[in-house]
Write the structure tokens for this entry.
Amino acid sequence: MLETTKTTIKRITETEGVKYEIYIPIPDTTPILIYLDETSFLSLMETLREAFENVGKKVNVNE
């Protein structure tokens, strides 16, 4: 397991395709380790981008 205090994202290329490993350390508890295929990872990044673009803006969730 990784020994770091920062979140890391690692791109892994395998014969089945590309996947991403996301490691989130949490002090004094078990860290989070997530594996996503490329499509899911890109969807997550798009959603995060949209969320940060809307920080401080009022967003209508019913749109």
The chain has one domain: 8-53. Residues 45 and 51 are 10 Å apart (CA to CA). The chain has a mean pLDDT of 87.
